[in-house]
Amino acid sequence: MQDFNTISRVYFIGIGGIGMSALAKYYQHNKAVVSGYDKTPTSLTREMEQSGINIHYEDNVNLLDKDAQLVIYTPAISKDHKEYNYYLHHNYEMMKRSVVLGEITKGTFSICIGGTHGKTTISTMIAHILTDAGFGCNAFLGGISVNYDTNFWSSQNNVSVAEADEFDRSFLQLSPDVALISSMDADHLDIYGTKENMEESFADFARRLKPGGLLVTKYGLNGKYFSAPNHIRYSLQNEMADAYAANIVMRNGSYEFDIYTKNWVLDRVKLQMGGMHNIENAVAAIVIARYLKVDNEKIKKAVENFKGVRRRFEYIIPPRDGNIVAPIIFIDDYAHHPQELEALVKSSKALFNLRKCTIIFQPHLFSRTKDLAKDFAQSLDLADNIILLPIYPARELPIPGITSQVILDEMKNDNVSIMSRQELLAYISANYKNQVSDSANGELLITAGAGDVDQLVEPIKNILT
Q: How far apart are CA 237 and CA 259, in angstroms?
């Protein structure tokens, strides 16, 4: 393909995706004319339009850029998409998003964060620490950083932090100097077939380390997959790991803790976001910052002012308004895998153990629901009250017999129901709002899922405040 520096026009098919939009912003930053198609407008597409990127929402070959030098497409795009086929049959240079990101990682010192969950928070935390400390990096993130209100930013320093996506084996295009793997739970079995095949793919990702690179993995992952000479294993609290947290103290939804390794200790680290799993994520991020020789005090300052990632344990209604304790705490989270849901519910209930916990969950993908229904049920059973929304299909066609009911049928908790969006908002307006008023210790409400459940967050907040 052409040298990136010579490309002046780029067209994106599926520009509104979180990974695609980061690349679109990258090209715009590098002075290219950027335009694209997406199925529906979102806050991300509106933001890009306001920055001067031309986006349309109709699959129409009369609206695409016929002068594009490079066409970047998402693997989720349908192969009968008219614009995709126009470019394909007219011999335009076309590349998957993952291939383009892979080319970028070849030419920079690249920190690539993989895992079936945790990767967005860890990559955003690393990028924030490096930026806040003055080290500098280019960030290609799978979520919106609350500190910077974006999923991409640039730096003069030739360092990139990128999320390594296992979907469609995309991460096998990357060339990391530092590779991190946070988890390898069964997921995307429609692509991999078996958990073992998926784990082998993570092993292949680890083997893509540049010579002399650093591999960082969560302690407890199957060691047979990893043989890098420079390998650090991290954990929340397991002292057998190479790096772990200790002396954890919870205070009003935030934490203070120390980090221990064989070679150094970092004490009194403060993290202003909920979830014990986020302490573990911080351990991983700090290990990499230390590897890059970022100053200890700068690391601690950056972690303390880290505001998190939108939709990752995000407080919509926080525990306190000044000195006033909120009658309801409302958390929104992207959790869409059983392990993520378990961590979310357990962490929330540990932080706010006197409050009744209600979770509103939107399953994501028919295939994932089919493969993991029992695991979803076990994780959701941990809440006091569960509301299931219909499955968000994303790129998939329906699978006969697979609805949210298959999760409900596996659940042991009797306080579970399936509601439409309209039924949910009516329930929040009447029953739930009254429940909050009558609660002696206050209520805890969680919305979770990777689909469009986030579009309900603002309406729910408006009802409750």
A: 9
Query: Edge-to-edge, what's the strand order for the sheet holding 33-37?
Result: 54-56, 33-37, 9-13, 70-73, 94-96
- Strands 94-96 and 265-271, by their bridges, are unpaired
Name the residue among 276, 272, 316 with its Cα closest to residue 445. Answer: 316
CA-nearest of 376, 385, 327 to 352 is 327
315 strand-pairing partners: 331
Tell me how far apart the alpha carbons of residues 85 and 429 are, in angstroms, rounded to a whole number. Answer: 47
SS3 state at 225: helix
Q: What is the DSSP letter of 305?
A: T
* Cα four-point dihedral sign 300, 302, 306, 309: negative
State both tokens at 213: 């690179």
pLDDT, tens only, 270-300: 999 888 889 999 999 999 999 999 999 999 9
360-415 pLDDT, tens digit per residue, is: 999 999 999 999 999 999 999 999 999 999 999 987 899 999 999 999 999 999 99
Measured distance CA(90)–CA(224) in Å, rounded: 46
Say whether pLDDT at 46 is over 70: yes
Residues in the chain: 465
Convert the pLDDT of each residue in 326-351 to its tens digit. Answer: 899 999 998 998 988 998 999 899 88
Return the pLDDT at 3.
Answer: 65
First to last CA, the chain: 53
Cα–Cα distance, 71 to 65 (Å, whole number):
9
Q: In angstroms, rounded to a whole number, what is the distance separating the alpha carbons of residues 449 and 452?
A: 8
> The tokens 């073992």 sit on which residue?
196
Contact between residue 179 and residue 109 where contact means Cβ atoms under 8 Å apart: no
Tokens of 271: 């993290």
Structure tokens at 278: 């986020």
Q: Are 346 and 373 in contact (CB under 8 A)?
A: no
Instruction: Measure the CA–CA gap between 87 and 226, rounded to whole angstroms.
Output: 40
